[in-house]
Amino acid sequence: MLADTWHLFNKYMRITMRMPMWTLFTLIQPLIWLLIFGQLFKDFVQLGDEDYMAFMVPGILVMTVLFGSSWSGVSLLREITAGTVDKMLVSPVSRVAIVLSRVLHSSAQVIAQAFIMLLVAWILGASLNMNPIYLIMAMLIIFLLGVGFAALSNGFAIALQREEPLVMIGNLMTLPLIFFSSALVPEQFMPDWIQLISAANPISYAVDAIRAVLSTSPDLAVFGKGLVVLTIFAGAALAWAVTAFNALRD
Amino acid sequence: MTNLAIQIKGLTKIYPPDNRAVDTLDLEIKEGEIMALLGPNGAGKSTTIRAASTLCGFDEGNVVVSGFDVDTNSLEVRQAIGVVAQQTGIDYFLTGRENMVLQGHLYRMKKADINDRIAELAAYFELDNSIDNLVSTYSGGMRRKLDIACALIHRPKILFLDEPTLGLDIKNRKILWKHIDKLNKEFGLTILLTTHYLEEADSLSHQVAIINNGKVQVVDTPDALKNSIHGDSITVSFDDVGKNEQGFFHYAQQQPYVKGSTWEDNKLHLYVEDGGANVAALMAIAAESQALITNLSLSRPTLDDVFLKYTGSSILETKEEEGDEWWKQWAGKGGNTGKWKSQWGAEDNAEESGEDQSWKNSDWLKEDADGIPGAKKREEAQWQQGAWSKDQQKQWSDKKDDSNPAGEQSSPQWDQSQKGDWQNNKWNKDGGEK
C-alpha cells in the first residue's frame, strides 16, 4: 500500500511541478486578504499590545490551506471522467493508496503555499516567531488540516458525483467556516452563538494552535489541544473518504 | 473442450429502480480467440466488460476470467487482464514512458522488467520516437496505441477493448486492427472487444456476439452469421407506408423466393434467393399493388443484416456513442463510466430516436404557440430555472396534469431538463416579452 501511495503521489507531484503557475494562482486571494485586510483592520481592531498582522497571519495561513485543499475532489471527478480512475481500479493497486496519494499530494501542495505566505508576512514585518522548531510544529497543524479538508472534498466528490454541488460545498467549507472561527477575529469579539459554532469548528483549533506556536511567547498547551483535535478530524475525514471510495464500485 | 478464457453465466446487473442493463447473459470465450460484442447503445456491452474486468459488481450470475471468479478472486483476475476503456485513461501531462512506468508500478513489476517491457512495447506500437514526449502532444491514434501498450505492460493473457477504434480516422483504425490482429496471432492474446464498426467485427474477430436488451441474441463466426441469412438482401424504401405498400409487403412475402423480411421504419429488407433474377418480379408486384418505391438496392447480406435481424435496427443508424454527447459529459458523471451509463443508457436509446432528435433540432424554439410538442419541454426547462414569474408558475400548474402524467420529477425528466439548460437563456429572452 505504501509503495502504491508513493508511486501515485509521485505522479501527482510531477503533474503539479509541470504546472507551477496553478499552485501560485491559488495564493493570490490569501495574499490580497493579507495585504488589504492587514492594512484595513490594523488600527480598527485593538488587541492590546499585540500587532494585528501577527494575529491575522495564522488565520490567513489556514485560509490558504482551505482554498488549496478543498478543491482536491474536483480533480478526482475529472479523473473519473477521464477514465484514469478506472485504469487504476482495474490494476491490483491498493484502493486506500488512491485516496491517500491524492490527499497527501494536496497537503504537500498546501504546505508549500503556506510557507510562501509565511515568508511574505515575515517580509511585511509581522512579528512572528520564526524559530524552525515552532515553524515545523505549525506546518504539522497545516498538514493535518490539509489532509482533513482534502479528504472531505474527495469524499464529497464521490458522494455527489457532480462538479457543481461539489464546488458549492467547497465554497461553503471555506469562507463561512473561516468566519465562524477565530481566524480573523479574536473570540472575545464574537457574539455568543458564533462562539458556540467556533468551539465546534476544527478551523478554530488549527488557528489557535498555529497562533500559539508562531507567537513570540509560544503556548504548548494550546498547540497540544489543537494537535489532538486535528489528528482526530483528519483521521475521521480520511476514513470517510476511503469508505466512500471503496463503495465507488457500482 | 478447449480452455475457456472467459465464462459468463447468467450475468444480471440491475440499476435502480428496475433497469436490467444486463439480463441473464451467457457468454463463453475460448483461449486465443477474438470475440466482438455488437449491439446498440445501452444493450449492455460495456456493462458486461466492466463486470468481467472487476470494475463493477453485479446482482446475479457467475463470471470466471482466466480460471478465477471475479467476485472472490478479483486480485488474480486483475493480474491476468489488461483493460482499455473507451476514454483513454492516460495522463496528458506525463510522457508516454512515465505513463507506462506508473502502470508497471501499479502492477508491482520490477523496475528493470518495466524498462524492458517499455522498450518492447514502444517498438511494437511504433512509439519509440515519441515515448519521452508529453502525451498532450500525441495524436489520437498514438494515444490509443499508448493506452493499449499500458494495458499490456504486465503481460496479461486477456485483453478487454471497449470501442478501441472509436473516433479514429480510417487510416489509424486500420493500423490499430493490424496491431490487434498481430497481438492475437503472435502472442496468443485472448481479446474481448466491443465495437460499432461492422467491418471491425467482420475482419478482426473469430466470433461475434450480438447483444440486445442485456442478452446475447446470437454467437457465431462472422461468416456463419452472414450465411444464416439466406439469399441476397433487397432493400426497398418508401416515402410513406400506406395501404398499397402493406399490400405489396403481404404479396411479396408469399413469393417462394422470398426467404425472410424485416421492417426498419420506412424501409423493407427482403432476403431473396437469386436476388438478381427475382428483382424484376418484385418490381412487377410493386407496380401491381401500386406501392410507391423511392429506392431499391440489391446486395449480399452483411453483418448489418444480421444485426438488423436480431436487434430490429440497423447498426449504421445507431449513434456513435452516447458518452460523446457533450451535455452528458457536462452532466458530470463522465459519459460512459459506471453507474451513469447503465442507468441512462437504455432509456436514452428509446428516446433518442424521436423526442431527443426534435429537441436537438430545436424546432420547438422557433414556434411560439402553446400546445406544440415543444411546450412541455419548455415548461420542464422553465421549471428548472428557479427564477420564474407567477404567471409562468400558474401556467405550469395548469399544464402540469396533462403534460406530465408522472406529476413529480422522476430522474429521466431531470435529465431532460438538463438538456434544456443550454437553451434556457435563449428562449428566456424571447419568452419574457410575451
**Quick one: overall form of chain A?**
globular
Distance between the termini of chain A: 23 Å
Overall residue-averaged pLDDT value of chain B: 75
Unreliable spans of chain A: none
Of all chain pairs, the largest interface belongs to:
A-B, 32 and 38 residues
Q: What is the oligomer described by this structure?
A: heterodimer
Distance between the termini of chain B: 74 Å
Q: Domains counted in the coordinates of chain B: how many? A: 3
CATH architecture of the largest domain in chain B: 3-Layer(aba) Sandwich
Q: Give the biggest sheet of chain B.
A: 6 strands, mixed
CATH superfamily of the largest domain in chain B: P-loop containing nucleotide triphosphate hydrolases
Sheet with the most strands of chain A? Answer: none
Describe how the helices and strands are arranged.
The complex is a heterodimer of chains A (250) and B (434).
Chain A: H1 2-18, H2 20-25, H3 28-40, H4 52-69, H5 72-82, H6 84-89, H7 95-123, H8 132-160, H9 163-179, H10 192-200, H11 202-214, H12 220-246
Helix pairs in contact in A: 1-7, 3-4, 4-7, 4-8, 4-9, 4-11, 5-8, 7-8, 7-12, 8-9, 8-11, 8-12, 11-12
Chain B: E1 4-15, E2 19-30, E3 34-38, H1 45-52, E4 60-65, E5 68-69, H2 74-80, E6 81-84, H3 96-106, H4 111-124, H5 140-152, E7 158-162, H6 170-187, E8 190-195, H7 198-204, E9 207-212, E10 215-220, H8 222-227, E11 232-238, H9 243-253, E12 258-264, E13 267-272, H10 275-288, E14 293-299, H11 303-311, H12 326-333, H13 338-361, H14 363-366, H15 373-385, H16 390-403, H17 411-431
Parallel strand pairs in B: 3-8, 3-9, 6-7, 7-8
Antiparallel strand pairs in B: 1-2, 1-4, 4-5, 9-10, 11-13, 11-14, 12-13
